[in-house]
Design a protein that fits this description.
Blueprint: E1 22-23, E2 30-31, E3 36-39, E4 45-47, E5 51-53, E6 59-61, E7 65-75, E8 81-89
Length: about 90
């Protein structure tokens, strides 16, 4: 007959670093081509003129210029309209 006690739950095992998400270059700042402007999970902010969005939804500058942000209405797949922040480099 086995005499191993019940396992129980371990509470202090989550030991991974944060993802360092967020806005990296703010409105009015000068940027160079390829610089990371926003790191995000999912498309919470959308790429506007002068920017492009990469595979993991990171928004980069496609040209040299100054960063600005603008609120735009965007239609979703279901037809619902939502307000999103558009990142622009001009």
């Amino acid at each position: 007959m086995s005499h191993v006690k019940a396992g129980g739950s371990s509470k202090n095992i989550h030991n991974n670093a944060g993802a360092r998400l967020g806005v990296k270059r703010f409105g009015g700042q000068k940027v160079n081509t390829g610089e990371v402007l926003v790191r995000q999970t999912g498309s919470t902010k959308i790429a506007g003129p002068g920017t492009f969005i990469s595979k993991n939804y990171t928004i980069h500058a496609a040209q040299d210029g100054v960063v600005s942000f603008k609120k735009v209405k965007k239609g979703t797949f279901t037809g619902r309209t939502v307000v999103r922040t558009q990142v622009i480099v001009s």
